[in-house]
Design a protein that fits this description.
By secondary structure, the chain is α+β, with helices and mostly antiparallel strands. It has a five-stranded antiparallel β-sheet, with helices on one face. A hairpin with a 5-residue loop joins strand 3 and strand 4. The protein has two domains: about 100 residues, no CATH class; about 90 residues, no CATH class. One of its GO terms (cellular component) is axoneme. It is found in: Cytoplasm, Cytoskeleton, Cilium axoneme. InterPro entries: CFAP300.
Length: about 230
């Protein structure tokens, strides 16, 4: 199969077994802010995707000449460039993706992390890996000794929805935090809906997610991290 650039999802409408996927790329060295440092690209694959061959598939993806010529990544100096080289090593981990409702975050209200007004409860300033913590939300996301850390189990924290939410909330060391929860939830929901595919189960009528999510570390001359969502 051939992979195309993000301007158009190549192969759409050409083959009934196409696998469409998005790739989110962001720089992990000296990560200070998301502004201008995160991008989403869409590619397609015109053959059957077999999840058990994910490592082989992901490495072939990064080493495809079309991907190499078009996949964007950020250099250490903060400039966007294209991959343009062979990937030496990849690590692909399946990211759970089962949540279909933003009610997943209601516990933040019921347990006193966020007030009924939507305002995030403040706390004494602290730091974690250079990230300032000045409210209970960031304590929940980062500090294991937080009184509310157990609101989300380990399996909850591995969910793709939670990963997106956490990334948007934390941003980087220069992130200007919101005082209310609403913008975080709205942006998380918008991204989540754009990045996954769903369908209704014909028997139960429940909404189920058909996308497979991988967290991919690809190693070349510099490191970059990607999240890939597959739409089958």
């Amino acid at each position: 199969g051939r992979c195309g650039d993000s301007g158009k999802v190549w192969g759409r409408g050409m083959c009934p077994v196409c696998v469409f996927f998005n790739i989110i790329t962001y720089h992990v060295l000296g990560f200070r802010s998301m502004h201008g440092r995160i991008t989403v690209q869409a590619f397609s694959f015109d053959q059957h995707f077999k999840a058990y061959r994910k490592d082989e598939f992901v490495k072939a993806f990064f080493n495809d000449p079309n991907v190499s010529a078009n996949l964007k990544l950020l250099t250490a100096s903060g400039q966007w460039t294209t991959l343009g080289t062979k990937v030496k090593k990849i690590e692909a981990i399946v990211v759970p993706c089962t949540q279909v409702s933003m009610s997943f975050f209601d516990r933040l209200y019921s347990e006193g992390v966020v007030r009924e007004t939507g305002h995030i409860v403040k706390c004494y300033d602290d730091y974690y890996d250079g990230i300032p913590i000045s409210d209970e939300l960031r304590k929940v996301l980062l500090l294991e000794d937080s009184d509310h850390f157990d609101l989300f189990s380990q399996s909850n924290r591995e969910e793709f929805l939670f990963c997106l939410f956490k990334h948007l909330c934390l941003g980087g060391t220069l992130c200007q935090f919101e005082d209310v929860l609403g913008p975080y939830l709205e942006t998380t929901k918008a991204l989540y809906k754009d990045l996954i595919s769903v369908q209704k189960d014909p028997e139960t009528k429940e909404i189920i997610i058909t996308s497979t999510i991988f967290k991919v570390s690809a190693y070349v001359s510099i490191n970059f991290l990607s999240l890939i969502t597959f739409h089958q």
